[in-house]
Amino acid sequence: MKGQGEGMTATAAQHGTVLSVASECVPLVKTGGLADVVGALPAALAGQGFAVRTLIPAYPGLVKALAHEREVWAEADLFGGPGRVLAGRAGGLDLLLLEAPHLYDRDGGPYSAHGADYPDNPERFAALSWAAAAIARGGTEEGWRPSILHAHDWQGGLAPAYLRYGGATAVRSVLTIHNIAFQGIAPADRLAKLRLAPGTFTPDQVEYYGNISALKAGLVTADAITTVSPNYANELMRPEFGMGLQGVIAARAASLHGILNGVDTAVWDPSRDPDAAPYGPRSMKGKATNRAALLAEFGLGPVPGPLAILVSRLTHQKGIDLVAEAVPDFIAGGGGLVVLGTGDPALEAAMRGLAERFPGRVGVTIGYDEALSHRMFAGGDAVLVPSRFEPCGLTQLYGLRYGTIPVVALTGGLADSVIGATPASLSAGAATGITFHPVDALGLRQALARLLALHAEPAVWAAMRARAMKAEVSWDSAAARYAALYRSLAG
Ligand code: ADP
After folding, report:
1. Residue 358: phi, psi to the nearest 5?
2. Residue 164 burial (CB count, 10 A)
3. For residue 143, is it left (φ>0), alpha (ψ between -120 and 50) or beta?
């Protein structure tokens, strides 16, 4: 695997080199879809002729994972303590780890401990962005320099800003918005601490409603902006979705690109999933085995109708409150539900409440469990994604690939990736899932009623499931679009 990766890097360099900077990256650290994207893009882009190196913070334990480790950059006082970048390989990636114990040696997760954000998060990720811009501009001690600096979300937002404010450079920058709800807000009095000049605190630069926003800083300084689906790119220019940044984004519409995420089709492959019995479009027997195993694992009895799954952060964004409201009718109609997630304590309690109310039909695991999520996709009949907004969404893509019919809100990337079942789309042989709008409990209840009805027609259901499994969800087309963007910037 490693040798293969290194070989790809050698050929990849023919078109350009990319420094990707982010706060998380699969398989090293993940709290959400951002990590999947950052971890998958390097291999996909290698096939397009780009060699990507990925810079993330050295959270506790990560340096140990690094093979062929060596120091390639250092600064004695990096936002309050020594910082250095270690290069090496881990998880098939060409990795750069920013080691700065005063910023990243923390007991909790990447952003918070015991439910509270670290108060110095602005500085923690400003330091990451600073190191990225410094390497982009000056190169590593080994003389490596990228042609493209690709920053992700607010944690990388200051990287294009530092690059731009540092003076003329040939390096071009791209900022990808994975979720605009997180904006990297810091009080105005931290400007100097964040190494931003007083002149940058204006509404057309880093100022955001009296504060500093690292995301906005990136949006106004990056050479190009991307977001993770075409539909979300359009939505972001509207006040309902732009979260105060709609004007900033609309002003940059000519540089904004929506590129739908893919999924790692080697990791998410029902014919070779180590966590489940194999199956594929030609033989679905394994799926029935997985369904029975899943029911047993959650201690459920027989479910005559469709078995829905929910694998999600349990938050308002994800519409979990709507599930609590809409599911009782679905259960009464013969459906079942298994839930895996963590998040808002009230929503966790609501999910537990469903399990108590419908023993034998609803099972809930509060927690984060990658292997269990695979067993759920392999054994479920449908996956619920009732998000109020969803930049791209990954679980509906896993659902398509596993023949686990996505039931999705018609928003963001969900609308770009699922073709909703209507009489017309069914007779045209196009439907791959169930979509609903508006995103409220009634909408979801009606979508679940449609799920019951479609599941009750075996031929229609089998045809839709077979189509879903053939939907294109790999990284190939996304990688081609990123590569085209990089080339257009370099040209
Ligand atoms: P977001 O990044 O907004 O949370 P996405 O759908 O883009 O939403 O990505 C979520 C990712 O995290 C998916 O890979 C999903 O399977 C995974 N995930 C979410 N919650 C859990 C959980 N409790 N256990 C395992 N995987 C989870």
Report:
1. -125, 65
2. 20
3. left
Domains and CATH numbers, the chain: 4-262+476-490 (3.40.50.2000), 285-470 (3.40.50.2000)
Q: Encode pLDDT of 477-490 as tens digits.
A: 999 999 999 999 98
Q: What pLDDT does residue 13 have?
A: 57
Question: By three-state DSSP, how is residue 120 classified?
Answer: coil
Residue holding tokens 């990319």? Answer: 18
Q: Which structure tokens are listed for 474?
A: 């790999």
Atom of ligand 1 nearest to the CA of 179: 3
Ligand 1 contacts (CB < 6 A) are 32-33, 36, 179, 311-313, 340-342, 368-370, 373, 392-395
45: Cα separation from own chain's centroid = 17
Task: Give the global pTM.
Answer: 0.91
For 415-433, the pLDDT digits (tens) are: 999 999 999 999 999 999 9
- The burial class, CB within 10 Å (0-12 / 13-18 / 19+), for 54 is buried
For 267, the token pair is: 């990791």
CA distance 104 to 117: 13
Nearest to 260 by CA among 215, 227, 302, 216: 227
Alpha-carbon distance of 340 to 366, in angstroms, equals 6
